Amino acid sequence: MDQNDVKPEPGGVRIPRRALLQIGAGGAGALGSVALGAAALPLLGHPLGGTGGSARAQTGDNPLVTNHPGHTESMTVGDVDVARMGFDPSVLVSAFDYGEATTMADGSTVREWEIAAYDKEIEIAPGVFFPAWTYNGQVPGPTLRANEGDRLRIHFTNAGTHPHTMHFHGIHSAFQDGVSGIGRGDIQIGETFTYEFTAKPFGCHLYHCHSTPLKRHIHKGLYGAYIVNPDPERHGDLARTRHPDHAESEEWQEFVMVMNAFDTTFDAANEVYAVNSVAFHYMKHPIPIDRARPVRIYLVNITEFDLINSFHLHANFFDYYDPGTRLEPTLRSVDTIMQAQGQRGILEFSYKDHDPGLYMFHAHVSEFAELGWMGVFDVR
Ligand SMILES: [Cu+2]
């Protein structure tokens, strides 16, 4: 069987997973009897050839979602109801949660967050619902951010239907590691536990549930980005652009992108790919960029089942910091990087000498791109 095929249900039909995205609304009924359990993704073409910035309508119309009969691939029809879902990828992409900060008598900072795990259905493409397990009702969970050396207290409540944990990538005690059977271990249903540790090392990190079976707890949606800003006092002036207390950070346009995917047919292979959960969201809602200001992306790969994910930037090159724990780039002037699961890094680039327009970014695993993992920056 081709690896792209969906395993047949008992007595059922085999459907290549790309076909799930290529069957229009008329095919939804037939598909419903196979495995999706939700409407199939209807489709529509997008006239990428004609999307020069100067031609772009100023009315708010997005030329990428104009209906072109005859082009029936590459994107979904319609839009996800983000109000009903309770979170909007257009907001999430630049939302950094510094928690509730308290300055202690010795001048140090304590940051606290309330995080609850609970089950919630999310809409990962128009009409396609996924029974997620969430941190605070969103996938990915809130992007937790702190300055190096801050004391962090994450008050975690398990309001879900399975034991869960919060496992942070960072440096801390084994007791705080959030792994089944180690230290505090699983937080049972209805229990609360406070994870407490110091924010280090600086870099672009992540957190996720580490209850078993691990792949299920991660894939269901229990993950998020965790960012630690470098302290310029310890690491010098280069750190100032990454630290919000310093004016040098203000010109930067910062985004968080968590590369994820969803197995809607429970066959241990993904049908929908995205950054920040909703397929094609940033094609339909381009991310505005002020071309005079530099761009920084905190990029995390949490994709389950596929060994590698990737990020490719069109018409530009970036410096890459893997995983952001040094101030010198790991790679200079590249336009594509790859990440294994749990790998993450920081991308820095600029459009200051570019024409205005829509500039794509997407997985350079082309299949992932066609199944939802693509977007555009609207450089103005
Ligand atoms: Cu879990």
Characterise this structure:
The protein is mainly β and 380 residues long. It has a domain at 83-244: Cupredoxins -  blue copper proteins (Immunoglobulin-like). Helices cover 10% and strands 33% of the residues. The chain has helices at residues 17-22, 28-32, 82-85, 89-92, 214-219, 232-235, 281-284, 366-370, and strands at 100-103, 109-125, 128-135, 144-147, 151-158, 167-168, 192-198, 203-208, 223-229, 253-262, 272-275, 287-289, 295-301, 308-313, 318-321, 331-334, 336-340, 344-349, 357-362, 374-379. It has a six-stranded mixed β-sheet. Strands 1, 2, 3, 5 and 7 form a five-stranded mixed β-sheet that branches. A hairpin with a 5-residue loop joins strand 1 (100-103) and strand 2 (109-125). The longest helix is centred in the first third of the chain and has 6 residues, at 17-22. The structure holds copper (II) ion. Copper (II) ion (CU) is lined by residues 162, 164, 209, 211, 217, 222.
